[in-house]
Write a structure and sequence with these properties.
Elements (H helix, E strand, L loop, with lengths): L3 H6 L7 H15 L8 H17 L2 H10 L21 H9 L17 E7 L1 H6 L1 E12 L8 E6 L8 E6 L2 E6 L8 E6 L8 E12 L8 E4 L14 E7 L5 E4 L2 E9 H6 L1 E7 L2 E7 L8 E4 L15 E8 L6 H13 L6 H15 L3
Helix pairs in contact: 2-3
């Protein structure tokens, strides 16, 4: 899945809103049509920049985009299929053209996403049986000294007159977009806030006790409500826990099933044997019948991992791996040669099959 919006603005997937706004302003100023008259490539790039900013500056749209890419935003872009997705919704367009609806009050947005995503790494055993973990993480709150503006001193943005939006003409239509000069804030910072150094927010530390259920798998997420970043009203977003699970040296997981490779010496495969294999709860005895082939599978029902939703266990699947000696003593080699000869015609039975096949292929070229 490609995430071209981040590439367009040249920011990372973990960028804060403040970083996204800064990148957007830089790009928008560079590719603005007024600075590039008649340049179709610059105009197209300007549209892409605005479309990317419209998504990444909106918490809900960004969350959908991060999970599903552009495909997940179908129907979310306020008419993007008609070419206006990067410049605000149709409501903004018609308000400007026909004057109904009045001037809407500009919504005050936090300079960061309200939701937080952190990664928690688990040992294989912890993922299988569940575990309690205390995690420390950082979250943002609005700087009270500047009320989130990042400014100790500021003045009204001359480009948008404090509205946070400007309008562009596209044919007979005027389309609203975020002001590229102030990035929608409506102000220009003259002197940065001493408390937050111009960011508009403060970084806080918090701890949370996580109760990881049995059966979680690599890539799963947990949602902890009201533990994210704080908005202007003091309400907090959600904290998302992204689970990563370390690989185990013995067990390999596939869903709720686990696989274990069982090495046996070639003589055991020929003669048969009884061996003990490890399981998640201890051990099991495995009976190997004579003449067992390499990669033979043995299934032990409900000896796997409990499903994180239903609790029903998967299966344990043991796969045989026949081991051959790397070196032979003279005595061992002599014994194997005697054994080889003792099979008589059976040793060369397969040769006649290939001899017939070779003669048949030769006939194709006559």
């Amino acid at each position: 899945m490609e995430f071209e919006y981040y590439e367009i603005l040249e920011v990372s997937k973990t960028a804060t809103k403040a970083e996204i706004k800064k990148a957007y302003r830089k790009k928008a100023m560079k590719y603005h049509p007024d600075r590039n008259p008649g340049d179709k490539e610059a105009e197209e790039m300007f549209k892409k920049i605005n479309e990317a900013y419209q998504v990444l500056s909106d918490d809900k749209k960004r969350a959908i985009y991060d999970k599903y890419g552009k495909a997940g935003l179908d129907g979310q872009m306020g008419g993007s299929s008609s070419g206006f997705g990067g410049f605000g919704g149709f409501e903004d367009i018609f308000e400007e053209m026909f004057g109904f609806g009045g001037r809407r009050e500009k919504r005050k947005e936090t300079p960061y996403n309200l939701d937080i995503l952190i990664e928690v790494e688990l040992e294989f055993k912890e993922a299988v049986f569940g575990v309690k973990k205390e995690e420390e993480y950082e979250y943002y709150t609005i700087c009270k000294s500047c009320n989130g503006t990042g400014a100790k001193k500021s003045h009204t943005c001359p480009t948008c007159s404090g509205a946070g939006q400007v309008f562009m003409s596209h044919g007979f239509m005027k389309v609203a977009q975020t002001c590229p000069t102030c990035q929608g804030s409506g102000i220009i910072i003259d002197e940065e806030c001493d408390e937050c150094k111009g960011s508009g927010y403060k970084i806080n530390k918090d701890k949370i006790e996580l109760d990881i259920p049995a059966g979680v798998d690599d890539g799963m997420r947990m949602r902890i409500p009201n533990k994210g970043n704080e908005d202007f009203d003091g309400r907090r977003g959600d904290l998302y826990i992204h689970i990563t699970v370390k690989e185990d040296k013995i067990f390999k997981r596939n869903g709720d099933d686990i696989f274990v490779e069982v090495p046996i010496f070639f003589t055991s495969a020929i003669l048969g044997d009884k061996i003990k294999i490890p399981t998640l709860t201890g051990e099991k005895e495995l009976e190997i019948k004579p003449h067992t082939k390499d990669k033979t599978k043995y299934r032990f029902k409900q000896e796997g991992i409990p499903n994180v939703h239903t609790g029903r266990k998967g299966n344990l699947i043991a796969i045989l791996k026949i081991i051959y000696p790397e070196k032979l003593t003279d005595e061992q080699k002599e014994l194997l040669e005697k054994l080889h000869k003792s099979f008589g015609k059976e040793v060369n039975a397969h040769k006649s099959i290939f001899e017939e096949a070779i003669e048949k292929v030769k006939g194709w070229f006559k």
